Amino acid sequence: MVQVALAVRLVARPGKEETLATFLKGALPLAEAEAQTSAWFAIQFSASEFGIFDAFPNDAGRQAHLDGPIAAALMAQADQLLAQPPRIEFVDVLAAKL
User: Fold this and answer.
1) Is-contact 8 87, C-beta < 8 A?
2) CA 13 to CA 70: how far, in whole Å?
3) H-type helices in 1-98, by residue range?
4) CA-CA distance, 12 to 1, in Å (whole number)?
5) In this structure, are residues 27 and 42 in contact, taking their beta carbons and an 8 Å threshold?
6) Closest C-alpha among 44, 56, 60, 58 to residue 8
7) What does the pLDDT read at residue 62?
8) Residue 63 needs a FRET pair 20 to 30 A away by CA distance; which of 5, 53, 81, 93 works?
């Protein structure tokens, strides 16, 4: 059962859209390796706006993800890939079908 999630919006720098999309696709194995990440989605809203939605059983799982390799890799490349800082929303999951 998932109880909490993260909804993250990412705006790519002009000309970095494909690079950001490739980064997000490549992060899937890292998400799969996280024991407390119950669901992980990399999504695209428009040509330049992307997102990550992931869900966890509890706050500890969510924090472990934020302290993990995907967030570290994204922040290490943020200046090169993103037009603005990631917009990270901490959300509660009311109902889920996984």
Assistant:
1) yes
2) 19
3) 17-26, 28-32, 59-66, 69-81
4) 33
5) yes
6) 44
7) 98
8) 81
Q: How would residue 65 be classed by pLDDT, with cut points 50, 70 and 90?
A: very high
> Radius of gyration of the chain from Cα atoms?
13
CB of 12 closer than 8 Å to CB of 20: yes
Strands (E), 12-73: 39-44, 49-56
Query: Distance from CA of residue 68 to its chain's centroid?
Result: 11
| pLDDT interval class at 29 (50, 70, 90) | very high
Q: Please report, for residues 92, 96, 98, the alpha-carbon distance to residue 27 in angstroms, rounded to integers and kept in the order given.
A: 23, 23, 20
**pLDDT digit string (tens) for 1-20?**
999 999 999 999 999 999 99
Q: CB-based burial of residue 46 (10 Å sphere; 0-12 exposed, 13-18 middle, 19+ buried)?
A: exposed
- Partnered with residue 9 across adjacent β-strands are 51, 87
Tell me the C-alpha distance between 28 and 39, whole Å: 11
